[in-house]
Amino acid sequence: MKHELPPVRGTLTEHRPLADLTWLRVGGPADVLFQPADEADLAAFLRALPEDVAVFPMGVGSNLIVRDGGLRGVVVRLGRGFNAIRTEGDRVIAGAAALDGHVARRAAAAGRDLTFLRTIPGAIGGAVRMNAGCYGTYVADRFESARAVTRAGRIAILGADDLGFRYRQTDLPEGWVITEATFRAPADDPAVLAARMEEQIARRDATQPTRERSAGSTFRNPAGFSSTGRADDCHDLKAWKLIDAAGLRGFSLGGARMSEKHPNFLINTGGASARELEELGELVRKRVYQHSGIQLEWEIMRVGETAP
Q1: SS (HEC) of 107-154
Q2: Confidence of residue 230 (pLDDT cuts 50, 70, 90)
């Protein structure tokens, strides 16, 4: 396939295994992995890429199961050319490859509050795409705009209305690649913000299996949510409580296990396949439905083909 692709200044790698690029350490190869040199390189590549070739933007793999058969088409992974962070007044501008935690810390040092990003795993591109949130604040609450390269290779500037923020999802078109996001961040004392983030880290480490191979929350909380992603006060259902009530804390299948510490975390105990992780998740969904009548929805993205 590589010889049929447009020339690039970045790196094209055929049959690139993706397991080591995901937090769960599972998954087969991509037909081609493209790491663009910069936005112009990415745009030129997508503009010349045949329309029938699928494009999948991939961040740091923190919320992803790549199935054992791998991904057909081109996987785009942004690197160092897309991780710059700067502040301009009350705006914080971050490249899509900048880690959420790094953005929170840089903003805090400049006296700007994006502390909700500190404990969210992953990078800014994925945070925008999934309307990530924590401690009652979501990307939608601080978002101003984003730059993206369309599947046709054009540069687009996206506002909140274009993305249609909802709970853990947006309307970003398939094959579009976010390259940068701008946030409006309220002012606060840097020392206060630093202390708040330390408290958040301590709270996370006390309640979540941060030292194990996971991809964060496995299932969405089955509650009502507003268009910006805030929870409806009339609903307080938590996925972990439903899993726990169904007797599935610590439940395992092969090398996959629901965490003892936080039952909504799917763990690779070492050597699990993507099939085992996904089958365990589906089994949990079935048992929770049988117990409570509530159908859990995946928060982890599952992509690619199953192995023969």
Answers
A1: HHHCCECCHHHCCCCCEHHHHHHCCCEECCEEHHHHEEEEEEECCCCC
A2: very low
Is residue 217 part of the annotated active site? The answer reads yes
Q: Where are the domains of the chain?
A: 2-80, 82-192
- Is residue 216 within 8 A of residue 132, CB to CB? The reply is no
Options 62, 214, 217, 273, the catalytic residue: 217
Topology annotation, domain 2-80: 3.30.43
Look at residue 37 and give its three-state secondary structure: coil
Return the pLDDT at 235: 46
Q: Which residues contact 28 (CB under 8 A, 6 or more apart)?
A: 17, 18, 19, 66, 67, 68, 69, 70, 71, 274, 304, 305, 307
62 is a catalytic site residue: no
- The encoded tokens of residue 85 equal 């962070």
| Residue 237 pLDDT class (50, 70, 90 cuts) | confident
The whole model's pTM is what?
A: 0.91
Given 168, 196, 257, 285, which residue is catalytic? 168
CATH number of 82-192: 3.30.465.10
- The answer to whether the Cα torsion of 282, 287, 289, 292 is positive or negative is negative
Check residue 215 and give its pLDDT: 94
Check residue 1 and give its pLDDT: 61
pLDDT of residue 75 exceeding 60, the answer is yes
Residue 168 annotated in active site: yes
